[in-house]
Amino acid sequence: MTSLTSVAPVLQLRGISKAFTGVQALNGVSLNLYPGEVHTLMGQNGAGKSTLIKVLTGVHMPDKGQILLEGRAIRPASTLAAQNLGISTVYQEVNLCPNLSVAENIFIGRYPHKAGRIDWRCMSQQASTLLARLQVDIDVERPLASYPLAVQQMVAISRALLGSAKVLILDEPTSSLDDKEVELLFSVLRDLRQQGMAILFVTHFLDQTYAISDRITVMRNGEREGEYACSELSRVDLVNKMVGVPAAAAAAAQPTADVANDTVVAAGAKADGRLPIFLRTLGLGRHGSLAPVDLEVRKGELLGLAGLLGSGRTELARLLFGADKADGGKIAIHGVERQFAGPRDAIAVGIGFCSEDRKHEGAVLDLSVRENMMLALQTRMGILRAIPLKRQQQLAQHYVQALGIKTASIETPVGALSGGNQQKVLLARWLVTEPEMLILDEPTRGIDVRAKQEIMDYVANLCRKGMSILFISSELSEVLRVSDRIVVMRDRKTAGEYPRNALDESSVLQVIAAGASHA
Amino acid sequence: MPSLTLQRPAAAPKTGSLTMFLHHPLFRPVAALVLLLVLDLLLVPGFFHLEIKDGHLYGSLIDILNRAAPLILAALGMTLVIATRGIDISVGAVVAISATVASMLIGGTMVLQDGVPTYVANTPMVWALCAAMGAALLCGAWNGVLVAGLGLQPIVATLILMVAGRGLAQLFTDGQIVTVYYQPYFFLGSGYLFGLPFSLYLVGGVFALTALLMRKTALGLFIQTVGINPVAARLAGLRTALLIFFVYVFCSACAGLSGLIISANIKSADANNAGLLLELDAILAVTLGGTSLAGGKFSLVGSVVGALIIQTLTYTIYSLGLPPEINMVVKSVVVFLVCLSQSAEFKNMWRALRTRANANKGEAA
């Protein structure tokens, strides 16, 4: 890579901000992309990577800030507009038409015409030429579905390169590719870089970042944490910056956090080995998503699950709740072995689960706050024994107050609430069932700091009252702060267990980073 | 409970009672019905005239209610199916099946009783009715298994029965129209009880039962949840498959009852034509009533009003002496208007137009 200063950046982002109903997704993010470089965008889930990409590709309009393409300010209003400007994107999932031919997929919407008809021969020739540029030699007239995923990804890239692409954005293109396919993709990317293409690469795989990047921009909580030359940033530093530097996190912690800390310490003091075990797994696993896991959750314990995205945290949570079916291992509740055929069975033994995907797996947006809160309890009671309306109102009112939910009334549709308040409603949905154990998967993602704090305080309080909590979060500082015990996960298996007192923050980072580098 | 939420405006506006009234989900369907009735008042002489003959209430309004009964029943069943994001296009076929089964079993044989020729049922009527309803329930179970058990798309799954059902009914009857001679059976379709047509009691009963189920049990909440967010429903512990199975069985049961009323009314069962395209009218009634085909929130009252709109429309066209072909065109215009009023795209366009018009006015002033 040539010295950056001598070349003008092809794409500049200046102070991009974007908010969604109360949540600041992006806050003054800047980024420079030079021709002939692979620039990797890294960050945890919810750091704002995808929002930034969407602003760039015209899906969202930024609230503030400027996008400069070759020095000229642009405001793409749609993906098509962005594409016409020379910003092409390849998305995580190959979104092409599997039943059309390769050539048709590349030229869809831009078929070459001759005398008012589609010029099929010209199209096939051009498609072959384009693919040859990516070192792919295939029959372009066969349907896309007849080729492996990696080739399909190449087709998606050649489609993106059609026309005069100056900037190529790759949004997690490797998540469904195997090692060999990734290598093929990377060699293509290196060629494109040679040809002067500016490539913005989004991934959460550390290995791949180091294999291909010239520079790395790290994002955290919707802000740009920093921009680094790849060669000058160690893996541990990178993970540090993604999850939040422990020292900085401690310094940034508000007085309220200290209060929370105290309450949690009290809860933690209780969580010693003498407490009875609520849940125990033996070799619980599912082929292709989680290696066999042995885990113990004690009564009144706050167990933190740390690890990067894709490390198996959510997969474990879903197995424990019966949301996915385990194909090996056992679960015992209070020492009695159980089979979970579905969430229903897990709920019956007193487990609750707040999914990380609030919108798609949690909230029933058109229903009211009250109805959303009653859902789990009502399913547990069965169809026939409806909870009396009076009782419903009492419960809903109680939790609206206890959790500080900001809503016009308990009859307001949940969809009208902000993300943080929706999350509290979902928490209440499980609290009304008075569960023995609650699994919280990223309960604080994408919600504002205050709601985050309130939720964590409440959760810590529940623990003190004897409820077991399995807490999953991408924010390591948060996991470290509240957990009695931490299980670190990587590569879809457990990688270590750390009791609260023996906890060493950098060692946790080491475990995560080491794991990632082996991946 | 659900029915409460159903009657609550979706956007929960805080402004005055007029806005609340105008935003009420039932406002548009009821307004459409009132509009039609006003039209009738002006155009059809004696439309609102009611009189008592032989202790029976007669009049256009009663006629409309009576004729709408099968459609209302079908619409009630369809409402629940649609609320779960489903659709059942086999309703007409189920009508044909239940009508055929009942008619065949009852039939009627002439015997001399005390020297007077009378018709007696081939099978005791209660058994015949049970058999017809049983056949309808079986149809529903079949649909339910296909949709909930095998995960077929509802429209495809019920298409199977839509095609096969009418064929089966014709096989039963050897392609003949089965005529019923047994007097008591006709009571279902044209009998009077306490001065009102008996079919109205049937409809009222089914409506009350359904509303009660929605209000007094958690069924309404669960059906809406499954319709709005099936993934969340499963994670909250709902047995979604069982619930979906139930709504298809319920829908077919309603259709079966419709079939009984229809065949009792025409004193025969025509496997080819009984309840033909009733499913489409039922879907139309549900849509007119303000329940979205995307599932979720539903309104039973809305569907009843929707069915009444359709029947009133038909009645009006007939009584104006217009050719029946017009009916189809007018109906399609109504469908078009309703769909337009539900389209978000159209609302946006309309709003943009209005703001532009306002801006122009502002400039002019």
What are its keywords?
heterodimer; A: 519 residues; alpha/beta; Rossmann fold; 3 domains; 6-stranded mixed beta sheet; 19 helices; 22 strands; 39% helix; globular; B: 365 residues; mainly alpha; ABC transporter involved in vitamin B12 uptake, BtuC; two-stranded antiparallel sheet; two-stranded antiparallel ribbon; 16 helices
The order of strands across the largest sheet of chain B is: 1-2
Task: Please work out how many helical segments of chain B DSSP would assign.
Answer: 16
Question: What is the fourth-level CATH superfamily of the largest domain in chain A?
Answer: P-loop containing nucleotide triphosphate hydrolases
Biggest sheet features of chain B: 2 strands, antiparallel
Unreliable stretches of chain B, pLDDT < 50, 5 or more residues?
A: 1-14
Strand content of chain B: 5-15%
Which architecture name of chain B does CATH use?
Orthogonal Bundle
Shape of chain B: globular
Report what the structure shows.
The complex is a heterodimer of chains A (519) and B (365). With 519 residues, chain A is α/β, with parallel strands linked by helices. Chain A has three domains: 4-247, Rossmann fold, CATH 3.40.50; 257-350 and 436-519, Rossmann fold (3-Layer(aba) Sandwich); 359-434, no CATH class. Chain A is built from 19 helices and 22 strands. In chain A, the strands form five sheets. Chain A has a six-stranded mixed beta sheet with strand order 6-9-10-3-11-12, sandwiched between helices. A six-stranded mixed beta sheet of chain A has the order 18-19-20-15-21-22, sandwiched between helices. Chain A has a four-stranded antiparallel beta sheet with strand order 2-1-4-5, covered by helices on one side. In chain A, strand 19, helix 17 (449-464) and strand 20 (468-472) form a beta-alpha-beta unit. In chain A, helix 8 packs across helix 19 (505-518) and helix 14 (369-381) packs parallel to helix 16 (419-431). The longest helix of chain A is centred in the middle third of the chain and has 16 residues, at 179-194. The two termini of chain A are 26 Å apart. Mean pLDDT of chain A is 81; it is low at 247-271. Chain B has helices at residues 2-6, 17-23, 27-43, 60-83, 91-106, 125-149, 154-173, 183-190, 198-216, 219-228, 230-235, 240-266, 278-288, 300-319, 324-342, 344-364; strands at residues 50-53, 56-59, 109-113, 116-120, 178-179, 192-193, 196-197, 268-269. Chain B starts with a helix and ends with a helix. In chain B, helix 4 (60-83) crosses helix 13 and helix 8 (183-190) packs across helix 12. The relative contact order of chain B is 0.18. Chain B has 16 helices and eight strands. The longest helix of chain B has 27 residues, at 240-266. Helices cover 70% and strands 7% of the residues of chain B. Chain B has a single domain, classed as ABC transporter involved in vitamin B12 uptake, BtuC (Orthogonal Bundle), CATH 1.10.3470. The model of chain B is unreliable at 1-14 (pLDDT under 50). Chain B is mostly helical and 365 residues long. At the A-B interface, helix 12, helix 13 and helix 14 of A face helix 1, helix 10 and helix 11 of B.
